[in-house]
# Entry
Amino acid sequence: MKGQMRARLVYAVLAGAAADLAGLGLIAAAAWLITRAAEQPPLAALSVAIVATRAFATGRGVFRYAERLTGHDVALRAQAGTRERLYESLIPPQRPRVGGADLLSRMVDDTDAVQDLLVRCLLPAAAAAIAGLTAVVIGLTILPVTALVLLAGLLLAGALLPAATAAAARRWSARMAPARAELAGRVADLVHGAADLSAYGAGDRALRDAGEAGDALGRLERRQARVHATALAGGTLVQVLTVVAIVLFAQAGGVGTVGTAVLALTALVAFEPVLPLAAAGERYAGIAAALRRLREVRSASPAVTEPATPAAPPSPPLTVEVEDLVVRHAPGGRPAVDGVSLTLAPGRRVALVGPSGAGKSTILAALMRLVEPESGNIRINGVDIADLDSDDVRAMMTGLTQDPYLFRTSLRDNLRLAGPEADDERLARAVRDARLEHWVERTGWDAELGEDGSTVSGGQLQRLALARALLYDPPVLLLDEPAEALDEETADELMADLLDVTHDRTTLLVTHRLKGLERVDEIVVLEDGRVIQRGAHDDLVSRPGYYRDLWESEVLTRR
Ligand code: ADP
# Structure
């Protein structure tokens, strides 16, 4: 595959160089033809040049077409390969710590950089180098000093100038990014805060601030455009001066009219593929930054280390023991989970309760092997989960994630995600257990869900997610805030159904609502990553403390 890509790349470079050379040949042959024709020789003396001119003109088009076709083919393949490797590096647990929106832009824009690098920088540069060197060789055969002048001019316009534009672009983008962010922020304030701004008569000032931010960006952009134009004009100036110098040297060197014309026009044309390299240099700065960001994603250290030789996964019934678990998200930062121990015996249900940020989701993440504990351990039937393949761990312990996602496909396929082999009967049972059968009867199994699909309420979404989890049927069920963001009535109904269906299932339930928790075996109350209370509901409400306060305020708000 790699060899094939390399061959295609070489082919594209050669086709590009051939197109440039045909352009060079065309001008050289035409120059010879025109100057020689002015001397009015017999027509037969011109026939070879006439044929050559035609052949070069046709060849240039054909070679350019071949170069574009192969060049883009190689570039798109390389881009696809990069995307594929990026996807691979994102599969948990190798998932790097890059946010969703940022990641999306890396997937889309930054992988385009791979294509740009090949099509806009490397291929044109290689083809220009071949064409330029050929022109230098032509110069050598006529008058060596002109070849040296041409070489110097080409290096100036094709290497020094692009390097300078690349450096300038890097500097400018560093200056313009904050100005652009400032303007975007001001405009966002204007749009989102329009009502408040007009209520307090502050609209004019906000408009003036946004205008100033726009002017500041405009000034930077104009200055950047001047630098850009100067760089491009510089290339043309080098081209003209080189040609003039070559003509002077040719005349001083006693080269005839035809030879001088050939030298001058060859030099003129040799610059054609070289001049756009200044703009390519400018582009390269952005491409290099994109490639750096891609490398960052790919080389981000995996969230957890897989064992070299994974232990055999224990078979159910499973007992999960968490002992002195400490998890820190950022080195040197505050631990998110700080010395938590708990046991999930077969068929027992444990609830994790505590304020937001207490570390509840982090414990679930550690159980699912999505984060590496700093110390302490998690054992399933005595086997440390660090010694197990993380996919095996998730096959044993998984469940409802905090933000269940609906795919843009049918209801049936959205459920089958968790049980590809499930027959209709099993699907129907999961839907019944999640108390979704009425909704499914109305909507139909083939209804399209997700964006643009049938609308699904928050409660239905959680029930769909629950049905998925029930279909997957892991020996240990993890439920992360299933009633989050639901109105009270829907949340109560969902929790009641959830507690019914998890009866006798080994379950770890993360929740901030206490209603119904009298039905679980143990409640572990967390604060700042530590266990502050634990016990059964009746026991906890009888003692003063966080749980009783929370229970009382919940009862009060229900009245
Ligand atoms: P809970 O689920 O109880 O709301 P979390 O486990 O989500 O709490 O968070 C516990 C602490 O860890 C919080 O202070 C939170 O800011 C921090 N935290 C959670 N996830 C990350 C992460 N991926 N990177 C850095 N810090 C995190």
